[in-house]
Amino acid sequence: MPLSDPEYLRRETWSLIEAACLLADTDPVAPDQFDRNPSTGGRPAHYYSNLKDATDAGILGCFESRTGRIAERRVPPWEVVKWARARGDNVPEQLRDVPEPTPAAQTAEATPAEKPITLTERNTLLVIIAALCKPCKIKYEERGAPVDIARLTEQLGAPVSDDTVRRVLARITDAVEARSKG
Question: Which phi and psi (to 5°) does residue 75 adopt?
Fold first, then answer.
C-alpha cells in the first residue's frame, strides 16, 4: 500500500509508532488504532513491541524522548530498515530505498548531545546512579525510592516523574550485574 504522505520517507527520524506502521506497510496511526485496519493483521502492534524491545536493549539506537514516553522515542529510518532486514522481516518496497546518510552527514547530524546512547553507556549511567544512591541512603530496589528520587529532581529544578524514575531504577540491578561480570 503506497503511503498517503511520502514525506515520512524523507524524515531524519521516525517515532517508534511511525516506524512500526511503516514497517507494516500502512500509514502511521495511534497505537489504539493498530487493530482497526484488518489488512494489517496486527503487524503494527507486533513491530511496535519489537522496536520498543530493541531500543530498550540498545540493539537499535534511538533518541530518547524529552517526556520519557517510549512511543516518542525517535529512530533513524535507515537504522529501522537495517534492523528489520537483519531480523529477516519483509521490508515494504517503499522503504527499501531509504537512504543511509553519508559519514559526513552522520557527523554533522549527530552532535554529542544527539547521539543515541549505547547499551554500555546506559549501563554505566545506571551503575553511577546506583553508586550515588548509596551515600544518600536511598535503596533503589525498595518501593519508596522512585518517589524520593523524583522529589530530589524537583528540588534540583529539573523534575522527573516517579513513574519514569521507577522505570530507570528497575534496570539498575541488571546493569550492576552486567558491569560486575565484565
Answer: -125, 140
* DSSP 8-state secondary structure symbol assigned to residue 63: B
Q: What angle do CA 119, 123, 126 make, to 5 degrees?
A: 140
Q: What is the pLDDT of residue 55?
A: 86
Q: What secondary structure does DSSP assign to 90-156, as a single string? A: ---GGGTTPPPPPHHHHHHH--TTTSPPPHHHHHHHHHHHHHHHTTTT--TTSTTHHHHHHHHHHHH
Residue 126 CA to residue 170 CA, distance in Å, equals 10
Quote the pTM value.
Answer: 0.53
What pLDDT was estimated at residue 149?
93
The tally of CA atoms less than 13 A away on the side-chain side of residue 175 is 24
